[in-house]
Design brief:
The complex is a heterodimer. Chain A is built from four helices and five strands; from the N terminus they run βαβαβαββα. By secondary structure, chain A is of the alpha/beta class. The radius of gyration of chain A is 12 Å and the shape is globular. The model of chain A has no long low-confidence stretch (mean pLDDT 94). Chain B has three domains: 181 residues, FAD/NAD(P)-binding domain, CATH 3.50.50; 107 residues, FAD/NAD(P)-binding domain, CATH 3.50.50.60; 85 residues, Glutaredoxin (3-Layer(aba) Sandwich). Chain B is 27% helix and 27% strand. Chain B contains nine helices and 21 strands. In chain B, the strands form five sheets. In chain B, strands 1, 2, 3, 4, 5, 6 and 17 form a seven-stranded mixed β-sheet that branches. Chain B has a five-stranded parallel β-sheet with strand order 8-15-9-10-11. Chain B is elongated, with a radius of gyration of 28 Å. Classes of the chains: A alpha/beta, B alpha/beta. Chains A and B meet through α2 and α3 of A and β8 and α3 of B. The structure holds flavin-adenine dinucleotide. The site of flavin-adenine dinucleotide has 40 residues of chain B, from α1, β2, α4 and α6.
Chain lengths: 104, 405
């Protein structure tokens, strides 16, 4: 997964063509840490989606700018527009279902 | 992954983990199934000050992390999956998960509790966008911002204090009169001393507002009915918990509030099914009591399996007829009749054997066969009851029973 931050978020996510997934996480968020290996697994299944992760500890303002104020949160963008938003009580199965929906 | 176990534990919070430790240490083949995070609710708090022996700042995730390793150390198996259905009716219990089907001789329900939803306007829509039920998960967002905490129990006040390490200001909304909180005194005092904490009394939340992210809340004074708006960046809700018993409804008896009543051995109304931790009807819902429940259930389950297996091999599976005498050392009459029944059994040793069950130690089998009076002798053949005598066990009564063997 590509590490995104203040420096590259615009280029890698917002101005990027196609589907981009961003996993908002923090090392203190236990459910986030549990989720990451599953997200990495999905990365192998959906080659048409660019998988990124964003550590909110260093990029708090950026996360809030994307209206993310709770963890875990996963957003999927298509051509820079949010198309999927999962927050709090979702499972990796829910995420996979959403990815199938948007990526076909 | 194997499919059949001695014991299956549903949920890996402190209750399930302690059950896993005790059961696998007694060499029971044990599987703990967890859908989310190992550690349960305890893994969602940094503030863990009251678990015996750990006073030097252990966090919830650290403590439950140790419990997890402890269970694995004794060979406990873990599975990440969600239990979606149960068949608890037979001796063999069936546990169905999203991805598999497992069987066990006994089941421990340790599904715990989850935060109660307040049910106000905006709460659902802004969850994860300023509305939170987990301070450790989300505190980092609120550095130098203002937050509101709703609730006044131990969890609410402790988490509010935790939030002051990040936030500029924490406003606690308390439904009671000024100075009255449900939290323990020491915790209250700590909150009063904290400069970053302010209180709003006699009040509750009426609405959470914001365009895609929390911007302000409407606070209602329940005495005057007056509603005031307060600008804030986050709302943390700690208004108690609800048991996770959706799955168990109709399978095990629940109380009016949805908790599972269990006896001192953590037994539920179904044989071989135990309930531990926050999910059961109890006075104090904490890590230490959940762990204690788990230990008791594992030991009780082990004994249950032994008794059931003995009964099966010594009574139910025997080709020969078996006279089972139910007696109790505390029932004088039944004690005196033991030699009488023993003599009777040796007289007919070519067609029947005798097994004694002490109902003081094992009430379950007596209950199952509807044995109410002491002493009673039930005659089993091919696993079925073919005759019974109770009360005053005269030779005539017993001889008549022998004819059925
Ligand atoms: C914010 C907060 C602070 C707290 N602070 C303290 C404290 O300082 N000291 C203290 O002693 N206690 C504290 N507590 C209370 C303590 O966390 C609980 O009493 C304890 O965690 C209960 O343990 P449990 O094993 O019964 O259930 P839980 O911890 O609730 O765990 C149950 C587990 O079961 C899993 N589960 C549920 N359904 C299924 C299913 N169908 N399939 C698979 N898995 C399932 C859940 O995912 C969960 O992990 C706090 C609680 C909270 C919320």
């Amino acid at each position: 997964m590509l590490e995104v931050n203040k420096e590259n978020f615009e280029v890698e996510v917002l101005s990027s063509k196609g589907l981009v997934l961003v996993d908002f996480w923090s090392p203190k968020c236990v459910p986030c840490m549990e989720l990451i290996p599953h997200v990495e697994e999905l990365e192998g299944k959906f080659e048409q989606v660019k998988f990124c992760k964003l550590n909110i500890l260093e990029n708090r303002r950026l996360a809030m700018g994307q209206k993310v104020m709770g963890l875990p949160t996963i957003l999927v963008y298509r051509d820079g527009e949010k198309v999927v938003e999962l927050s709090k009580d979702f499972t990796h199965e829910d995420l996979e279902a959403k990815l199938i929906e948007v990526a076909g | 992954m194997a499919n059949s176990y001695d014991l299956i534990v549903i949920g890996a919070g402190p209750g399930g983990l302690a059950a896993g430790i005790y059961a696998s240490r007694s060499k029971l083949n044990t599987l703990v199934i967890e859908k989310g995070v190992v550690g349960g609710q305890a893994a969602t708090t940094e503030e863990m000050e009251n678990y015996p022996g750990f006073y030097l700042g252990v966090t919830g995730p650290q403590l439950t992390g140790h419990m997890h390793k402890h269970a694995e150390h004794f060979g406990c198996n873990f599975l990440k999956d969600e239990v979606v259905d149960l068949d608890l009716t037979g001796y063999e219990k069936v546990v169905v998960t999203k991805n598999g089907r497992y069987t066990a001789k006994a089941v421990v329900i340790a599904t715990g509790a989850e935060p109660r939803f307040l049910g106000v306007k905006g709460e659902k829509e802004l969850k994860g966008k300023g509305v939170s039920y987990c301070a450790t998960c989300d505190a980092d967002f609120y550095e130098d911002l203002d937050v509101v905490v709703l609730g006044n129990g131990d969890a609410a006040i402790e988490e509010a204090i935790y939030l002051t390490r990040f936030a500029a200001k924490v406003t606690i909304i308390v439904i009671h009169d000024e100075g009255v909180m449900d939290a323990t005194k020491v915790i209250q005092e700590r909150a009063y001393k904290n400069d970053k904490i302010e209180f709003i009394w006699n009040s509750t939340l009426e609405e959470i507002k914001g365009d895609g992210i929390v911007e302000n809340v409407a606070i209602k004074n329940i005495k005057t009915g007056k509603v005031t708006d307060l600008e804030t960046n986050g709302v943390f809700i700690f208004v108690g918990t609800v048991p996770r018993t959706e799955l168990i409804k109709g399978k095990v008896e629940l109380d009016q509030r949805g908790y599972i009543p269990a006896n001192e051995l953590m037994e539920t109304t179904v044989d071989g099914v135990y309930a531990v931790g926050d999910v059961r009807t109890k006075y104090l819902r904490q890590v230490v009591t959940a762990a204690a429940d788990g230990a008791i259930a594992a030991v009780a389950a082990e004994k249950y399996m032994q008794e059931e297996e003995n009964f099966k091999s010594e009574v139910l599976d025997k080709a020969k007829a078996i006279a089972v005498m139910f007696w109790s050392p505390f029932h004088q009459g039944s004690l005196e009749m033991v030699p009488l029944v023993e003599k009777f059994a040796s007289r007919h040793s070519e067609k029947l054997d005798m097994v004694k069950i002490d109902t003081y130690r094992n009430q379950r089998i007596a209950r199952r066969y509807d044995v109410k009076e002491m002493p009673s002798v039930l005659l089993f053949k091919g696993g079925e009851v073919v005759g019974r005598v109770t009360g005053d066990l005269t030779s005539e009564k017993l001889e008549k029973l022998a004819t059925l063997a």
